[in-house]
């Protein structure tokens, strides 16, 4: 449990899991600065650079320069024809805001950040690695061109690519001295199908059959409240010892489809990279020593 009186930014606060998290935080006595397209403290469109800038600045002004945490739940589902917008909201709607908010998060005592990824990161085939690399570097136009060149089911691929990119960005940035070393804990929650307007719109679309046929071992969809409960743990002191971690809450789909892929012993070819990271780790006690 978090102790009340903190200030938290929550994107996607008007609906689904973002709304459930905002409600849980308010119930524990925190101030929530909600960001969304409508019904929010900060109304902004995260699919444009200007909207993201305005959202970042307005939140900082309302928070008075100090944020105890942030939950990045705003996101678009795999809607056909909106591939570029999916990448803008799901990737830059996270990375631009967090980059702008980092000093305010560092100003708090052990701030916590939770980013919404998805189990689609590990169960969607045909996601081009180059597109993921481009997205991590902020090149949404180049990534979208590469995804659209493949034709076929481009929206689910854009969606999965956006979530792989944002998850890898968290694992890359979240373990750096500027984040983990400054007391900020950034982690990812990766839900499977959760009954929200986003999932409902997929169930109402021509893709309903493939959504319904997706294997979920527990044989039911998740609820926004269940996911919010996990996010609340990731915002609490229980997460002080967590950085760059992905928590999958998906009814078992990922475990079923990728049983033997993880965990895996470190391959020999990974050793030079690991040694390089150990060498680069600051030795001033800011981050844990290896
Ligand atoms: P939702 O559709 O209920 O809520 C998403 C919110 O994001 C909405 O309030 C929407 O207005 C906001 N949003 C969308 N585009 C925006 C923009 N351009 N600017 C500002 N706000 C914008 O969806 P849900 O299901 O609660 O999703 C939350 C997060 O969880 C998303 O990142 C989604 O990708 C992810 N997720 C959802 C799953 C599901 O089955 N529902 C599964 C895995 C991940």
UniProtKB/TrEMBL annotation:
InterPro entries: NAD(P)-bd_dom_sf, SDR_fam. The keyword Oxidoreductase applies. It comes from the Bacteria. Coiled coil: none annotated. Keywords: Oxidoreductase. Pfam families: adh_short_C2. GO terms for molecular function: oxidoreductase activity. Belongs to the short-chain dehydrogenases/reductases (SDR) family. This is NAD-dependent epimerase. The lineage of its organism: Bacteria, Bacillati, Actinomycetota, Actinomycetes, Mycobacteriales.
């Amino acid at each position: 449990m978090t102790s009340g009186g903190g200030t938290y930014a929550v994107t996607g606060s008007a609906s689904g899991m973002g709304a459930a998290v905002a409600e849980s935080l308010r119930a524990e006595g925190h101030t929530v600065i909600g960001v969304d397209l409508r019904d929010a403290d900060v109304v902004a469109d995260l699919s444009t650079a200007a909207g993201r800038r305005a959202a970042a600045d307005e939140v900082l002004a309302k928070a008075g320069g100090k944020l105890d945490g942030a939950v990045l739940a705003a996101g678009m589902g795999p809607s056909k024809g909106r591939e570029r917008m999916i990448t803008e909201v799901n990737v830059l709607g996270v990375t631009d805001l967090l980059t702008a908010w980092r000093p305010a998060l560092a100003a708090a005592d052990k701030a916590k950040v939770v980013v919404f990824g998805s189990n689609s990161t590990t169960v969607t085939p045909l996601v081009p690695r180059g597109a993921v690399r481009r997205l991590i570097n902020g090149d949404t136009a180049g990534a979208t061109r590469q995804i659209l060149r493949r034709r076929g089911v481009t929206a689910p691929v854009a969606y999965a690519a956006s979530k792989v990119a944002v998850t890898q960005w968290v694992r890359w940035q979240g373990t750096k001295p500027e984040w983990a070393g400054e007391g900020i804990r950034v982690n990812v929650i990766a839900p499977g199908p959760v009954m929200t307007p986003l999932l409902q719109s997929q169930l109402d679309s021509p893709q309903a059959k493939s959504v319904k046929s997706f294997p979920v071992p527990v044989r039911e969809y998740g609820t926004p409240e269940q996911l919010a409960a996990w996010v609340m743990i990731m915002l609490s002191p229980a997460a002080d010892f967590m950085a760059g971690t992905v928590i999958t809450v998906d009814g078992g789909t990922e475990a079923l489809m990728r049983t033997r892929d993880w965990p895996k012993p470190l391959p020999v070819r990974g050793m030079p990279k690991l040694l390089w990271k150990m060498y680069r780790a600051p030795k001033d006690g800011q981050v844990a020593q290896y």
